[in-house]
Amino acid sequence: MDGLGVLLLFHILAEGLGDKKSPEHEAADAAAAALKKSGDANAAELKASAPGVAPVAVTPQGAAAPLATVPTDKGPALPAATPSAVPFASATPASLPPFPVAWQGGQPPGWEFAEDSAHHVAPEIVKRAQALLPQLWQHGAGTHVQEMTGGQWITYNAEWHDKVKGIKGVTAYRAKAAKAA
Fold first, then answer.
1. Coil, strand, or helix at residue 178?
2. Is the distance from CB of 168 to CB of 160 less than 8 angstroms?
3. Which is it for the CA torsion 32, 33, 38, 39, positive or negative?
4. CA–CA gap between residue 29 and residue 27 (Å, rounded)
5. What is the C-alpha R_g of the chain?
6. What's the pLDDT at 84?
7. The pTM is what?
């Protein structure tokens, strides 16, 4: 079969399939909708429990460092936050282990990297870490903040990803008992 024949066959097959989604695609859409519904419920719970409370980071010296916010219809959010940003809770749950002051890399006691078993970090956690990068680094390496992201409490910590090359980063941790499904 020549190239034109293959192209025509592909076009005929594509036209015959129409806009039908595969079962895998439909399952992924359903899972995304369920995750959004869960996230919306968490946002509503946070808004009801702590409307208008601004986030506070902890500097390497252990001092509180309020982070700049912008007002949204859901409460204060960091400037680089997405439109679906949720308001910040006034306090983290007592069940979270303490996060070490001025932590500089590795897994602190009681915490682990916020990743799945395949070492992938959820997109919403990546976006929050990127949004927090300039804010946390205003106070230096070891500055951290804890907030609800994707239905779980995450600690974002400013860390050198390559100090020799001057590459700054934000590492996301979750409590060891709080593994995502």
1. coil
2. yes
3. positive
4. 5
5. 21
6. 43
7. 0.58
Strands (DSSP E) along 40-142, which ranges? Answer: 56-58, 64-66, 70-72, 75-77, 111-113
pLDDT band of residue 96 (cuts 50, 70, 90) is confident
Element at 32 (helix H, strand E): helix 23-49
Q: Which residues of 84-120 are buried (b: 16+ CB within 10 A; e: fewer)?
A: ebbbbbeebeeebeebeeebeeeebeebeebeeeeee
Tokens representing 2 are 């020549």
Distance between alpha carbon 92 and the CA centroid of its chain, in Å?
A: 16
Q: Rounded distance, CA 126 to CA 128, Å?
A: 6
C-alpha span between 87 and 17 (Å, rounded): 44
| pLDDT for the residue numbered 159 | 93
**Phi, psi angle pair for 77, to nearest 5°:** -140, 160
How is residue 4 written in tokens?
Answer: 């034109």
Does residue 154 contact residue 174 with C-beta atoms inside 8 Å? yes
3-class secondary-structure state, position 158: strand
